[in-house]
Specification:
Blueprint: H1 2-17, H2 23-31, H3 37-62, H4 71-98, H5 104-131, H6 137-170, H7 176-196, H8 200-214
């Protein structure tokens, strides 16, 4: 986080020194330049992952599943967003380096690789990064992957193929992560909901304990 804050201070200082173009346009040009793109993509991923979780928590408060906002949970989702942002940043660069062009053939190849290779990696990264904050990281990670992976992967197939056609065909590499995160804001709400629902194994244990205590 210290590196990110230092980078953004340098970026805004560069913007303030510029008087030849409007500052907002200058800010965008610098933020999405090769020098700052990595930090920009991580910042976007952190921000929208946090917003997605807060939207889901708002809904849970509305239906009285919880009584207040859990900022610790939100920070964990932000950390996961950072991990995903790092992967996305490098993944798109790799795809565009080895699959050059915007023909239909190239777009289909990128789409197939994205869905069959990168989507599973992203889901596993989500569960793995969040498991680091839990009491029994390895056990919880295994339970959640077993219980929730298919649900999230199925949802990926509903959202991303049509969205990625636009991404791969029309957008330059530097805007791919921004586009991804904008599209995935609704998906992040669903991701947070799935992640914070109890695995079947855990729910079964709690039910068994309740029955035992009742008897």
């Amino acid at each position: 986080m210290k590196v990110l804050s230092t980078t953004w201070r340098n970026l805004t200082a560069n913007v303030r020194r510029s008087t030849s173009v409007p500052q907002f346009r200058r800010f965008l040009n610098i933020a999405f330049s090769d020098k700052f793109l990595f930090c920009t993509n991580i910042t976007i991923s952190i921000g929208l992952s946090s917003v997605g979780d807060l939207m889901e928590q708002s809904y849970e408060i509305f239906i009285k599943e919880q009584t207040h906002y859990d900022l610790k949970r939100c920070s964990h989702m932000a950390f996961s967003g950072a991990a995903v942002g790092v992967l996305c940043h490098h993944w798109y660069k790799i795809l565009d380096k080895f699959l050059v062009g915007k023909t239909v053939d190239m777009v289909i190849k990128k789409l197939v690789l994205d869905q069959f290779i990168f989507s599973p990696v992203m889901i596993v990264t989500l569960f793995g990064s969040l498991a680091l904050f839990e009491e029994h990281p390895l056990e919880n990670f295994k339970d959640e992957v077993k219980d929730k992976f298919v649900k999230l992967y199925r949802a990926e197939w509903m959202v991303w193929p049509p969205a990625q056609v636009i991404n791969f065909y029309f957008l330059p590499t530097k805007y791919r992560v921004l586009y991804d995160n904008t599209i995935s804001l609704g998906y992040d709400v669903y991701t947070s909901q799935v992640k914070h629902s109890k695995p079947a194994k855990t729910a079964a244990k709690e039910t068994a304990n309740m029955i035992t205590h009742a008897s």
